[in-house]
Fold each of these.
Amino acid sequence: MTTAVEGSPHRADGGRSELLGLAALLGAGLLLAAVGARWISGPLVPLALALVLAAVVAVIWTAVAGSPESKRRIAPYGLLKPGMLWLALFYLAPLITLLRSSLSTRPSRFAVDFTFDWNLGNYTTAFTDFAPQFGRAFLYAGSATVLTILIGFPLAYVIAFRGGRFKTLLLGLVVIPFFTSYLIRTIAWRSLLADTGQVVQLFDTLRISGILETVGVMDNGRVLNTPAAVIGGLTYNFLPFMILPIYVSLEKVDPRLVDAAQDLYSTAFQSFRKVVVPLALPGVFAGTLLTFIPAAGDFVNALYLGSPNTTMIGNSIQDQFLVQSNVPLASAMSFVLMLIITVFVFVYSRFFGTEDLT
Amino acid sequence: MDTQDPAAPYRTDPRPTTSPDPARTDTGTGTGSDTGTDDVVVLDGVSKRFGSFTAVDRADFTIERGEFFAMLGPSGCGKTTTLKMIAGFEQPSGGRVLLEGVDVSRTPPYKRNVNTVFQQYALFPHMTVAENVAFGPRSKKVPKAEYVERVTDMLEVVRLSDFAHRRPNQLSGGQQQRVALARALVNYPSALLLDEPLAALDLKLREAMQFELKRIQREVGITFVFVTHDQGEALTMSDRIAVMNEGRVEQIGTPEDIYHRPATLFVASFIGTANLLPGALAGRDGDELIVRLESGDTVRAVGSNTSAGVGSHADGSPVSVMLRPERLRVIPAPGTGADRAVEPGGAAPGRSVSGTVDDLVFQGASARLSLRLADGTDVIANVGTDADLPFLRPGDPVAVTWQPGAAYLLAGRPPRPGASTTDVDQVEAAL
């Protein structure tokens, strides 16, 4: 290394050693994953761990050693190393473990243990037995996302354009509920929505129970344990994740653009629709992802605000994992949920993606 | 640009009251409204107050059709507020704004047939250049075939046809400026309002755009109302200028009027460099007034009745004599006595002041001579680089003279006697 003076062979060497380092890291992560997934067992485990250690040491050594010049050249690759290591250890390895257990079989209904045997039956069961739960998960999460847009957009708009010196305070109010635990807040809604709670009383006083009954918000005089309660809980819990990104988008909109639109013969509403909304779409896009993805996998709201008729896929996965101890089936269900969400995000970003504005 | 008359598309405008009408004289005098519609914008005692602060104080002026009209003043003088009241973004606290003879004081911007070129252009970032320009006609529900043609024509006028499908952020500052112009002009407004349109451009581009704006204005024949704090810009481009200060209109006139015959001390000192010499009225001789300066010199000056009513002033009242540096000639004294410096070289009595050289800076085509009068007032003269000049040293006695009519009389004492320059860069730095 130290004798190399000419540029190009040296550079090629530096680049190659860097790629090798990255490959070693990835290999180390996979080895760790294999140990974790018990693909490697018995006397091979210490050997695998030794290999992982060697790879990590080698990678660190290539980063520390070498001439200053070669270090400078390989620095950009070097910066990838912590991230790659992190991904390999905490993303790739668990993912492979999950995939492996989803393809495993339990020896009996009551066994906790399972063996890997390329069993695709778990996926069939996930689709056939849990279709309603998948359906509800996406229906409830989708409704909650739409509601958060409807509630969050005007709120973000008012804070961004009319907030004035209260902007920070108003944003603080949006964030303050986070100071209380998610679980506590959801459970608090139980007493608010209870049959003798303030919400039902209010509806009765206003004599709108009948109307709410027809539109499906209430069921037999109850609000708690209805789909509406679950959707409401999801909406409440994920609202800030919609407000904040929309606010960030709207904050960047120059108010003079609205002036310009009105100068060019647009009414206040037209200029809002043709100028403000398109410019806020990146925020709506980000907010939708932040809201829809966790809401689709959520089980807390359905658990505390819903009924057995409103279980979402999150509840079923939790049940299979922790109550039935059917890890292979639960893994398969998790994988299916993940795949559906990935497809949704892909399609959504194709149709609504606004990468040239973000 | 092909050989077709570039102004042709604008003659096809179906709205006769707003199109530039070269055939106006042919219509004869039969239509009584003809004279009325020549005033595109009328401000009738317009005031604007924000709480206890008066931004615009009883502005009264008329902008005629096809005019290039500038509102000039330091920052905070109310010029932008006045423009916003014409555009409709602000409503006057008092008085009326008339557009094409109709009171629009309470009309929202989207119902007024004026368009604005905003200071930072305010182009819609999510639309292409063509979509930006088409925004106005589409809002007005102009049929597609027609607005496409108008957008194409207008992009040709501003020379951006090749950029129709670019986004604003892919354009340079000058190109964005022209998009903003096209976006406003494509609506054939009664008047185009420009709010410091060149302020965001660098110096070289700014100078090029001054001529570009004039060319476009000539081509489309639309009234331009232009707000600027840059006196050079206003003098170069405008047909008429309204000089504003602290919410009041100080003077309205042609660039020559404003420069050579300022109405007030403020106008004199704001436009260009002016030497303002304090003195007292000592009598009159025909058209000329005799002023005894505080430096001890007695000079003759002219003044119009409009320059704050000089004609009515009694002897002894405080006045100022304005001398523009480029109209001064230097008479170096061959001897050492200050008395001798006043007399020689054919300087007519009452057309010179004498002092001592303070500084002399060679500037190429001319030299900038600073001299100090007996009372300590500084005077600046831009003089030719004559053979005598290099021999002037600080402290030498010297006198400057001028042609009849170059000394202009203004009422009142200057706030700061001597040479005053409004340096645009200083104004910008202060903003």
Amino acid sequence: MLAAAVGQLIAVAVVIALSPLLRGVIENLKAKVQSRRGSSPLQPYYDLYKLLGKQRSRTPHGSALSVAAPYIVFATPIAFAMLIPVLSAAPLSWAFMADMVGSGFVIGIGGFFTNLAAMDSGSPYGGLGSSRSRFVSSLAEPTFIVVFFAVGFISGGTVPFVVNDALFTSSSHIVPSHALIAAAFLMVILAEAGRLPIDNPNSSQELSMIESSRLYEFSGPDLALFEWGGFMKLFVLLIVWLNVLVFPLGLAGAINVPAFAVAVASLAGKMLVAAILLVGIESALAKIRIMRVPEYLGGSFVLAFLGLALYTVGH
Amino acid sequence: MLAELMLSALLLLVTYWFIVTRRLSSAVSAYSVQSWLLGLVALALYVDTRLIGLLLFGLLIVSVKGILIPRLLRNRVAFALVAGRETSYYVRFPTALLIGAGLSLVGLLAATRLAFQPQLLPQSVLGISLAVFLLGLFTTIARRDAILQVTGLLAAENGLLLLSLVVAPGLSLLIEVAIVLDVLIAVLVMGFLVARMRDAVAGTDTSELTRLRG
């Protein structure tokens, strides 16, 4: 019991500690692809350190919401990390608090409070960003639901730990549906985490920004918490994609030091591969116009739907 | 068996490319990729069964439909491809996607209702071939642009060939050669018609063809 709790703590610590590195590596590799030298992979850590050291300045028009929101945004990916197989294949003590639908709600809370806080400040950009991010999320929802249906249908359960076990031990005829579902899930992850075909995380250009406009009225430690929460959100969503849907090998079978060390190393390796994949996607695609977002997310819905249909028919 | 299933699923996926694409040149690439996948299904089936007809069929598909016809299409309609024009639908894009999803469901479900047991390939490939056929026909109907209508028809034809692989894997090679040559001629004729149309109405948008002349 104690060991499981410690294991869970380590998983959470890994998420907190490594998520800025993922962002840094992605930015660095992206710069390399564009023949630039790029900033150091450790740059996000420096940024966070600088922001955390700054004076806190809040808009006088904001309510208690703006005070609480950064902490909530920082906390939700951590709660999410307890529900998913970050390092160990065996469920840990808190893993059964929520299934995939429940953990989807948990990760949604962060976005919900970011929106509220953005509108709370009364800045027009905040409202703009909130409305756009709701637009994207509401369109991503059907895909998420169909993916959950599909994995629940295939594996007979929606707890992430059960799913990754079931997907890789059942018969081979689920392989096409499995691949389609994984592709659909990656597409909605990119949309949810504000990555390139939908939102450019590096730009603060009025016309196109979604995520950065929501954070316009925040600075110093508050902004650091928002940023870090964003890093962690991408990190944990990618963990779900990697460890549950794509490549569940390399997870610790037991809770002891060598097994966890191997698990951390394999997670880092998988994340590097995922980072290279993301860099490839983001270098190949341009940001799509906001009016075409329904097409992108509609495409991901069709992928997930076909995955489900193929499974049902082949069964 | 897994390789065939995977390739067929990819084939279905690529067929959606015809539905979502806005550019003519990418529709031609989609056709090329789709034909390659079809050929690979036949070749994978050959590896499993060692039927020499399948090997020849696969090579024929890849060489004629994967390489020759796309090249021909590009040459024939180069004027339209160079422009890199964006094209539209009679319906909106998200609607088209949803209709496509519905159609593939119809195809997949219809396959389970057929009183027919495929011998070599799994039942879902039968469904996929019907779905590809329906999607191709839908593109043919719903697109405004003549070139995209042609590629849609060709995509539907690929679905039929996949169906022939499911229903009669060892079909006589003579028939297959005839089918593929038929398609080649069809592409030549359709390319000619599209070029004629461009001369007549200065474009390939079929919604401009509103007057009937004897």
